[in-house]
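Fold sample X.
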Amino acid sequence: MKTLALLICASLQIASCSSSQNKKKTEKETTPETYANTITASELKTMLYTYASDDFEGRKTGEPGQKKAIEFIKSNYQSNNIPSPIAPDDYFQDIPGSYFGNNIKDSENVIAYIKGSEKPDEVIIISAHLDHIGVSGNGDINNGADDDGSGTVAILEIAEAFKAAEKEGHGPKRTVVFLHVTGEEIGLYGSRYYSDEDPIFPLENTVANLNIDMIGRVDPKHEASGKNYLYLIGSDKLSKELHTISEYVNKKHFNLEFDYTYNDDNDPNRFYYRSDHYNFAKNNIPVIFYFNGTHADYHKPSDTPDKINYEFLETRAKLIFHTAWELANREERIKLDQ
């Protein structure tokens, strides 16, 4: 009997150990790193070589190439079963040409989302502009691989990562919105239309905007170091808490060099006012603008996908995913500074 009792005890210990190991394994498998690792340089490259190809004719607002761009974005969301908040299979927020002026044709923002599991009315918006400057007078196509093809494909990969989490029962607590805006190159029109005319999600419920505009290249200032970096603009303008979270996420997962040169209120470039995050910031929504700086190919036909640093792009997209994950899953929404 004593031997039997010892065998039963040992068996229970093994079962308990196995259960504990399985629990630890499950916990490991459901960390954000698991889903961040679905963001890969190879997938980013494949998408960008299409999105910034000559077929898209420089994606000028209202023109045929821009229409191809929105269909490309839509098809990616459909193939990954990531829905639209507008209506089933209607991913386009239509903007009439009269809104733009200057003989611009009708255009569209593209919007998809993953509904929050616990706080669905609170929203994190990740944005990038889908347009570029089109074809030069001499017929050269401005492909806009970095500006802002890099931001566009980064959002598509980030959305896939959140969807992978949702499929396994670990969707974000807050709603995460993937917003591709048009008309940035002619005056931030698409984001202004969303914020001023037709916010699909109420602005008062919008916790933060993470805006991605050019994250695929290396500017001259950082070429020599060979180290991955990003310029961050706006992270501390409205919420010091957002800035603290951003720094924490970076140090925990990546330790990229964060360069705040362009965040200076006296910076002559005034980048804080020159990308789509500003239309959220002006409505007291905390923002971060992620940016790799300008380079010799900025707004030229030579901004092509072969010049993108895809390893850097992968890591930068993962950083933004982790930041969005933290904002979407923390217990309390971040607060505005008093």
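Fold sample Y, listed below.
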Amino acid sequence: MVRNELGLFNKTICDWASFCREVLIEWSVKRQGKIGGKDMIVEINESKFGKRKYNVGRIVEGQWIFGGICRETKSTFLVPVEKLDKDTLLQIIKDKIEPDSIIIFDRWKACKMRDINI
């Protein structure tokens, strides 16, 4: 085991794992440009990341994330959001998805980017 070979404590390993995770998140957020393109399919969705009180029941605190993936190129975007309202999501779609992309979202029927009134 790496821990034994390097003589590291579990806390040190956990700290380094957290640090690496944070670096990867920062890198992925900064490198994100627009995804999709003419007749490419972009799937979008939202999810709440958080923890449960005493690991049971509904999630009581956390962060909403809105993201998408292009089926053809596998490129992605992730954006933390405070609200999941129409104005917020439409602005992110406009900023993150190329025109003429086909958008699939569980709340809307599939549509072309140009059909969305932004």
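Sample Y note: Helices lie at 2-6, 10-30, 86-96.
Also: Residues 1-31 form one domain.
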